[in-house]
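INFO worker-7 received task bundle
INFO bundle size: 2
INFO processing item 0
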Amino acid sequence: MSSFKKLGVLVAILALSAVGAANASAATFTSSATGTLAGKALNTQVFTTDSGQVKCSTANTSGSIVSTASAEQHVTVEYKNCTAFGFASVDVSPATYLFTATGVAHLKNTVTINVTLAGCHQTIEPQNSLGTITYTNLAGGKLGVDANVTGIVYYGTGGLCGSSTPKTNGTYTGNNEVERVGGGSISRDA
């Protein structure tokens, strides 16, 4: 085989390999139809900082499904029934996330955690590339969303909530499920 033909075969093999690799990394969220999604916590959601843990037993998720196949999904999560540092009266503002089908979350708004009885609050500003998010296709067309996120940047003010100097060691864990409102399915496909 001439050198020119060998080069042509090599280029064809590399091109096919590149197409295969691109298809292998093209994870998507797939829905049976556009519409609305809703979700709930399957366990306690835990945000950990140097000050201690904030635990929320309720996390209600909502969002719009704008395409039947997408690499990302915007959702808003409202955290309720929260405790922090031994105090029962804790308010956590809603969080808007952009989840990618590849397992990365981006926080799109500022989230505040107000511990009224302790006279303090913690702030988590928008940040990108928070991972690890794992997805599981569940029975009944539901999608499991398991968060195990590290490296969250936050700062506190007042009392137990720490200093105004940003810290980078926040973590977040929680298992949730989402479903398409009105029936149908939502899944994560590799």
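INFO item 0 finished
INFO processing item 1
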Amino acid sequence: MRQRISNTGSALDGLAIAMSVACVMHCLMLPVLVVLFPILGSTVMADESFHGLLLFLIISSSLLALYMGCRQHGDGWVLALGITGLVILAAAAALGTEALGVEGEKALTGLGGTVLAIGHWKNFRRCRTRRCEEQTACATAEAIV
């Protein structure tokens, strides 16, 4: 059972990293693509509801993955790093271009996505290290018996 939970946490970390990267790529590439292909400006990807949905998915999957990982490896700093990234992303979304300007919003979103991705990477690595330690301890115990 513990192995299934651990695998779920790793999969959620991977999903959250992918969504963070997709968010950063979306912010960086959409303006260029709209200039090259103006029809993209009228698609759902340019709509603010898309940003809200993406932020909701990132926050919910990230909180779950980081919480599950923290329960497994016990490193609260990893959880704090991930939450810091989420807060930065949420601040960028809440303040928007009105308060930050286009470049400011992109910079803050990029920073938040990067901090969050680093938090997930550390979470993934800590969980993997913990699993290796547990497997080694079990193998050693079985060898002694």
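INFO item 1 finished
INFO post-check item 1: The chain has one domain: 2-144.
INFO post-check item 1: The radius of gyration is 19 Å.
INFO worker-7 idle
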